[in-house]
């Protein structure tokens, strides 16, 4: 059966708040946030990012901001139920992680419930987040991620089932959502109310629609709307590239905290900067290339541990991070290519030794966008998805059938 496709290339016309001369000059008051039994002293969240937020990267980020919440990359529920080896690897946490935070994704309420039960029965996590914000076509065309809140019955049932399982172990559940499929099909206010009614302890809103993908600038006004409408904490997500952006978002929206995605790619010290900013300090980390290389080497070593000693897998995983770590530094294309050709830790260290450690982090790219900055895309949805706010029997049969993608990586 063909997909339904939203063809409008929707872009935000919201201006970057950093250009706003009317920004409040008095820093906002930031309070700790309690998610049920989980206490988050500094309300800053590392958002789950596929292929990025495994425990080595989380450990590095947490070393800069030890009081935040660092969420593991998305685990597909069906893969966890099937005991997929990669899914199980992604469920691992380092001993140093203070809060074991895990995100689940799924479309079939029964399967997501089974996955949550595994998490609880095997004591895998202290906090469970539910993904209703992923905009990528392979997820939305299955009715998942940011497409799912359109179907209110399905959205409510998944949250109900997971909360019921997790409540027995005092493990809080939160939800990550987007504004909607597009601006003609916004769901964030309704989804926020449902999440609150069904027992979620907080909601994170990425202030873009699915159609906007990662383009333009996110519309923070929606974060303020949701925060005003709910009693549970709302975390804002979208276009936080530096500590001042975090302060601006809280000032402008009143949200309880911020969630960081692409902004920390290659810049894990952003969590220290935000922690300082929330504490009223102007102190910021200004790393040299030598400082960054120390992080690169540590990241490589932790990835080797993550891959059970396989250095080749570790340095291949590191490649995308290298591009982010070195962004803006005058190191040349040949150096970047050399890092891309590394096959073990010795190769990485050899390339690091060739660099000038005294080079300063370039001011022209500090607090500037990085990572995925792709613009709007066509939205792929299940056939007839937008015709009703509730799923039909036929839709459920199609959605919950054999789904190899949902059980593999």
Name a few traits of the molecule.
16 helices; globular
What does this structure look like?
The protein is α/β, with parallel strands linked by helices and 409 residues long. Helices cover 38% and strands 12% of the residues. α6 runs parallel beside α7 (188-197) and α11 runs antiparallel to α14 (345-353). The radius of gyration is 21 Å and the shape is globular. Mean pLDDT is 91; it is low at 19-23.
Number of helices: 16
Query: Which outline best applies?
Result: globular
Mean pLDDT: 91
Strand content: 5-15%
What's the Cα radius of gyration? 21 Å
Number of strands: 13
Task: Describe what is shown at a glance.
By secondary structure, the chain is α/β, with parallel strands linked by helices.
Give the SSE layout.
Blueprint: E1 4-6, E2 33-35, E3 38-40, E4 44-46, H1 55-64, E5 69-70, E6 75-76, H2 77-81, H3 85-90, E7 101-105, H4 109-121, E8 127-132, H5 137-140, H6 152-167, E9 173-178, H7 188-197, E10 202-206, H8 221-229, E11 234-237, H9 243-253, E12 257-260, H10 270-278, H11 289-306, H12 311-325, H13 333-340, H14 345-353, E13 379-381, H15 393-399, H16 404-407
Parallel strand pairs: 4-5, 4-12, 6-7, 7-8, 8-9, 9-10, 10-11, 11-12
Antiparallel strand pairs: 1-13, 2-3
């Amino acid at each position: 059966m063909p997909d339904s496709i939203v063809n409008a290339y929707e872009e935000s016309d919201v201006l970057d708040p950093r250009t706003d001369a009317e920004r409040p000059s008095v820093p906002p008051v930031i309070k700790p946030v309690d998610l049920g039994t989980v206490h988050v002293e500094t309300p800053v969240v590392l958002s789950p990012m596929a292929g990025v937020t495994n425990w080595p990267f989380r450990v590095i980020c947490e070393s800069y901001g030890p009081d935040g919440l660092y969420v593991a990359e998305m685990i597909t529920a069906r893969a966890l139920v099937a005991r997929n080896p990669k899914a199980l690897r992604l469920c691992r946490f380092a001993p140093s992680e203070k809060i074991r935070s895990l995100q689940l994704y799924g479309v079939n309420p029964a399967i997501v419930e089974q996955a949550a039960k595994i998490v609880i029965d095997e004591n895998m996590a202290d906090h469970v987040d539910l993904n209703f914000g992923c905009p990528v076509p392979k997820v939305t065309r299955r009715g998942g991620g940011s497409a799912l809140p359109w179907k209110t019955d399905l959205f409510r049932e998944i949250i109900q089932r997971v909360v019921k399982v997790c409540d027995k172990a005092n493990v809080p559940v939160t939800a990550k959502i987007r504004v909607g499929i597009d601006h003609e099909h916004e769901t964030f206010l309704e989804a926020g109310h449902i999440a609150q009614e069904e027992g979620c302890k907080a909601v994170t809103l990425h202030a873009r629609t699915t159609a906007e993908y990662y383009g333009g600038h996110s519309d923070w006004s929606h974060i303020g709307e949701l925060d005003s409408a709910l009693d549970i904490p709302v975390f804002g997500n979208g276009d936080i590239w530096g500590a001042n952006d975090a302060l601006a978002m809280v000032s402008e929206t009143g949200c309880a905290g911020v969630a960081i995605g692409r902004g920390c790619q290659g810049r894990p010290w952003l969590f220290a900067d935000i922690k300082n900013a929330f504490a009223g300090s102007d102190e910021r980390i200004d790393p040299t290339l030598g400082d960054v290389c120390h992080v690169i080497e540590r990241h490589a070593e932790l990835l080797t541990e993550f891959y059970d000693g396989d250095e080749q897998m570790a340095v291949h995983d590191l490649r995308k991070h290298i591009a982010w770590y070195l962004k803006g530094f005058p190191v040349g294309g040949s150096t970047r290519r050399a890092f891309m050709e590394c096959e073990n830790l010795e190769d990485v260290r050899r390339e690091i030794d060739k660099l000038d450690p005294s080079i300063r982090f370039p001011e022209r790219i500090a607090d500037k966008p990085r990572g995925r900055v792709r613009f709007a895309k066509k939205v792929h949805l299940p056939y007839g998805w937008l015709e009703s706010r509730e799923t039909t029997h036929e839709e459920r049969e199609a959605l919950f059938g054999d789904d190899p993608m949902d059980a593999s990586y």
